[in-house]
Amino acid sequence: MQPDLFNNSGGAQPQVLPLPDADVTYYPQWLEAEKASVIEQQLKDELHWHQDTIKIYGRLVKIPRLQAWHGDHRATYSYSGLAMTPQPWTSALGELKDQLAGHCHTSFNSVLANWYRDGQDSMGMHADDEPELGPEPVIASLTFGQARPFIFKHQTTRARSKVVLEHGSLLVMRGRTQQHYHHGIAKTTQQIGDRINLTFRHIFFDTGNQ
After folding, report:
1. Which of the listed CATH numbers 3.40.50.2300, 3.60.20.10, 2.60.120.590, 3.40.50.1980 matches domain 4-209?
2. Residues 184 and 160 sit within 8 Å (Cβ to Cβ)
3. Has residue 45 got a pLDDT over 60?
4. Which of 70, 73, 85, 182 is deepest in the core (most CB within 10 A)?
């Protein structure tokens, strides 16, 4: 059984997750609930949502969620055989990017948005370890809407843990986290509401092509 790292935030104090070989901090209520709800509706209305197809073990499958990729015009990104060209920053995404840059003391030039429409939408276990993210990426993850368990799995020990990501919360993964852990969102048979997640990141360009 995977232990709950922080199943109930119980306040807005930042919480360092007790994960060996990782640097992960959870900020419950990073956005006030009312403001988070306003932004959530903006994201639903304004982002370029679509359902992509990716290749898994040589087989083409539809991603079990809607997604959108926004960022600087050169911030292209590829995973599982899918190449994504960024849509422009919206005002809401741009404001969040600037706030997170100050909070995390790093720059972000792109964001992957995922819309989990119900409990059957999910994210398979993976690491954000693509070369264009650099060896120790900073990933800032914002959650809007339905709280969902976020699962960590150590790549060597196979130990599993989880933290419930709540409306308006922020999860920041740093350092060697992506080298040692996979993470994901599992399906559930429960009747639950929808959830939008934004993962801000920095794509490093090939300087030889500038």
Report:
1. 2.60.120.590
2. no
3. yes
4. 70
